[in-house]
Amino acid sequence: MYAAIESATLIGTTGVAITVEAHVGNGLPGFTVVGLPDEGCRESRDRVRAAMLSSGFDWPNKRITINLAGAGERRGGAGLDLAIAVGVLVANEVLAPEFVQGMSFIAELGLDGSLRPTPGTAPLVAAVRDTVAVVAHSAVSEASLARPEKLRAVRSLAELVQVLNGEESWPHLDDHDVPVEHDVVPDLADVRGQASARLALEVAAAGMHHLLMVGPPGAGKSMLARRLPGILPRLTEDEAFACAMVRSAAGMPLHAGVVTSPPFRSPHHSMSMAAMVGGGSAHIRPGELTLANNGVLFLDEMGEFAPTVLDALRQPLEEGVVHIARAQGSISMPARSLLVAATNPCPCGGGGPGTCGCQLPIKQRYFRRFSGPLLDRFDLRINLARPSTAELTSSEHGECSAVVAERVQKVRDLSLRRQGCVNSAIPADMLDEVASLSEDAMGVLRTRLDSGRLSGRGYHRVRRVARTLADLHGETGVIITQWVEVALSLRVSFNAADGTFR
Amino acid sequence: MSGSLMTARYPQWVYAAALAALPLQTYKRLRMLMSLGQPSEVWEALQEGERLLPGVKTECWRAWHAVPSQSLVEIAESCIDNDITVTTNRDSRYPSVLLGDPHAPAVIFSKGNLQSLHHRRVGIVGTRTATQQGRYSARHLGQSLAEAGVCVVSGLARGIDYESHVGAFAATGDIAAMPCAVVASGLNKVYPPEHHELWKRMGEEALLLSEAPPNAPAETHRFPLRNRILAALSEVLVVVESRSTGGSMITVREAMKRDITVMAVPGAVKVPSCEGTNMLLRDGCAPVLDVSDVLVALGLDTRRHAGVVDTREPPTATEQLVLEAMGNAPCTIDELSLRTNQRVVDVAVLLGRLEAKDWVGHVDGWWEALLR
Q: Which residues are A341's β-sheet partners?
């Protein structure tokens, strides 16, 4: 008559365990789902009924009530299908309650009774840690990321019932000792010339300084940005796991194993705000900002993004977390990524000096899209030019990613030991201690501040970049003038008066 | 014309301003109207619907006839409110240099001191999108000329015009002359808006003039007309940097029509904003390498003045290497690092120091040496 089955539902990027209660009793025949189900869950009524009939079970001609017990949050997802079906079977006394004791069921049902993987299998399985989780056979590799032990998989509902009734044994699972994979990331050695941009990339990677590249088409902005994951430190086990969880929650196909190269997300500029920060009404999905967590978020043609989308980046960039509030509740998702943006210097694309024919007001309008506060978030703002013939034809290859990555890793280790965070996150009150400047270096900054070319916020940011530059060159003590000067040269600003970067 | 003996209700300049502000007015029609008699008489005749000129279309007469007499008061008020002086070619204060010019404006709106035009006058024109070197040259030239007592005539546009005016205002010395700006819009319509400060200063301390009545917006067709006045006011016209087409080249043509000496500052080859000036030089225009070239062309004594002294702090030996590697065309840090065989970080530091000393400038990642 009554059954309680364990399952899980997805809220943001994390799974939450819930209990699916089923009751089959006398009354007008019908099937209702209560407990704030979402649209996808209400549809599961039809799927479950069809799957049961296809699998050769009787559909009880009685009143069936399903309750999704838990806190008062709207929940659902097709992943509850299997739990509902099992609940009905137990309540209808097809299955004995003791057979499903200590088990949880996470899969979507096909009308033919087959089990299908559901988006977010990994975080869902992680949410029901204490039980034996049953998932679709094709979702094993994803589920085993979260928990390789206490995992069972079957292909269909009929097979599941046979196994549970003891008529057959659980199908054998291949040993899924999660393989570690490296994505193939293009190498920095392919880039000819662009010495100053390489430097900026290295600094960005070493100190997690957000980077804005301004240059004409063909200058190699995207090419450079795509090589950034190759010089960033490999993800730790926890980070890689978190990354896989987010991907799973977003319903993206998971690689065969844990990927230790940092994610690289390059969304198209037509994206909506919900796609950037995450959103949705019933089921909040992670946005690009969360998908790029611990990796690189690359915004190509930043000027073409909707201004609201860009401004929505500001708060998450500071906090490393994105908060999304809806009428049903609010959730937080991780959003600690390295922001790399590229833009043309003007609508026509620009080129060498004097080749741009854009009127000043048009240029000004183009850059008005980037709010001052957003531009301020970029510690590094560089101009790029198309490489000259001399650079392109020089036989000298640049350094390869591995060499740079080694230096970057050293700086990361050093900065974590020294101040417990990356250089771009050094709190302002710690700067004097961690990034103390020589007398001359201070003088250079003071001149800049006095001339009004450096803001208060910029002052702190330049010091952090100078710290990273000094670290990269093996100077861990007081920062000398040279690094402050280089840091300043890596921070051009937009002049609204004449529409140029200087 | 009725030839009425009735005395005018307002001063003559009010009628002149109103005639200049008539709809469908052109400088040629205005010149002809002004040649017919006192502005008040012409105005009254137009009000009565008389067709005074041959060859003017009917719709034009209709429009002129339809202008309410109230517009006299309105234009007088906007001139007085904005402190704008109206000078006609019948006044003794009208710039004598324009008197003989067949295309000179019959009515001039001005702010500031018309006496500025009694100095020797050199026009400085150039592109709005100039290179750093071009801007630097314009500023330096403007200042040196003003210090030699020459009135710098320019158009208050972006780029070269702006720099030459700023340079002229920076001039010091006993005989320093104030500049003169010829603008296209009405004197109360600042264009481009970001030159608001300079516009104001020009009207207060120097001379700001236009043939457009107050409230006239900066319309495209007014700029070539402005350029003809600019050319007519110059004794020598110096083009600092110009594309192969554009406003500066129009000014050059206007100057050549009037047999005014045109000189050009040589620019880097293959830089688009220098194409026009280099073309002029190829066609036999005299080059300006130094302010003394212009002074000689004006017939001024260049010996009286001390030679140009570079007040900038000299570059150190290592900085000098970078400065020399830059040549005269814009280049990037990466290129410089290749040319000097130094690390990017070192080049960046040296450029930063040179910039602090005013030896180099950069825009959109392109660096240029600023040479005098």
A: A212, A299
